[in-house]
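tokens incoming
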């Protein structure tokens, strides 16, 4: 399989050479055919012999050139990869390269990185959340949103259960209070959704989380609170970074620009991560109701 991929990549890298070799091969075949036909006529035997020799030469040289090109290119790539690896592994070379790159970038870019912003996405991809939860181990996963549009898609029941019971992950989820009509109405006015849709969406999240809660063993590792405070950003946090989306007019946070904010940069905790983490912890501590799950239902209790 790997050899087939390698040959295909070589064909793409030098198409003119391979076309030339194919033409030479076809010319050789045609010349051999002509020589065999001409050999039946005694007047053309000498000419047919010459044509035959040229045809044989064309057919013979084609595979030789092909093998030579294949072996030479592979040898070059092999030797170059070893040489590059040797150079990179020299003492201090990584730091030198990092310094060169840093100096070549504008200062504003360095400021962005040093404060924790490492990437941006046009929207929140549920696959990204799913992949990170698959990888999570001994992690506290923090979610602050009005509601989570793709919750059951991103975190399937078996993935939820496996993360909590088998990989010691702890979920802290903060959602809007579906009973707080005043808080919901303020957000409704900025979007083309009804208050009823908001409430149904939040309850759908809570019903799904409740269905997972009933199946897990480590029930203390799945905690949900609700609030009615104004929030300007949605947050999904892992041990080493947050993904932050903005609540904008006529756009839910999931469909807005997402910023990835890393915890550590140059061996230190970044300022932006620190602020975002403090913001979440404050929202968590100030959330005035927690969701109490039982085997039959869920309810809200003052914290």
């Amino acid at each position: 399989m790997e050899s087939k991929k390698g040959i295909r990549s070589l064909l793409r890298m030098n198409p003119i050479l391979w076309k030339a070799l194919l033409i030479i091969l076809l010319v050789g075949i045609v010349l051999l055919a002509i020589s065999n036909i001409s050999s039946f006529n005694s007047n053309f035997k000498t000419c047919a012999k010459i044509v035959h020799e040229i045809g044989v030469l064309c057919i013979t040289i084609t595979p030789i050139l092909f093998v030579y090109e294949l072996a030479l290119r592979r040898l070059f790539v092999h030797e170059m990869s070893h040489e590059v690896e040797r150079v990179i592994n020299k003492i201090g070379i990584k730091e030198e390269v990092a310094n060169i790159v840093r100096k070549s970038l504008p200062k504003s870019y360095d400021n962005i990185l040093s404060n924790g912003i490492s990437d941006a996405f046009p929207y929140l991809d549920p696959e990204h959340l799913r992949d990170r939860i698959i990888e999570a181990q001994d992690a506290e996963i923090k979610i602050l949103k009005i509601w989570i549009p793709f919750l059951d898609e991103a975190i399937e029941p078996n993935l939820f259960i496996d993360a909590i019971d088998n990989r010691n992950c702890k979920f802290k989820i903060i959602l809007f209070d579906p009973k707080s009509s005043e808080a919901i109405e303020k957000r409704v006015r900025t979007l083309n959704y009804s208050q009823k849709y908001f409430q149904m969406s939040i309850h759908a999240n809570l019903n799904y989380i409740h269905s997972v809660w009933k199946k897990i063993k480590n029930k203390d590792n799945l905690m949900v609170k609700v609030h009615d405070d104004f929030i300007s950003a949605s947050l999904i946090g892992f041990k080493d970074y947050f993904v932050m989306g903005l609540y904008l007019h006529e756009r839910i946070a999931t469909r807005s620009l997402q910023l990835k904010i890393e915890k550590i940069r140059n061996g230190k905790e970044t300022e932006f991560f620190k602020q975002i983490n403090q913001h979440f912890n404050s929202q968590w501590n100030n959330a005035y109701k927690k969701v109490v799950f039982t085997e039959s239902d869920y309810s809200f209790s003052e914290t």
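note: The chain has two domains: 2-88, 113-302.
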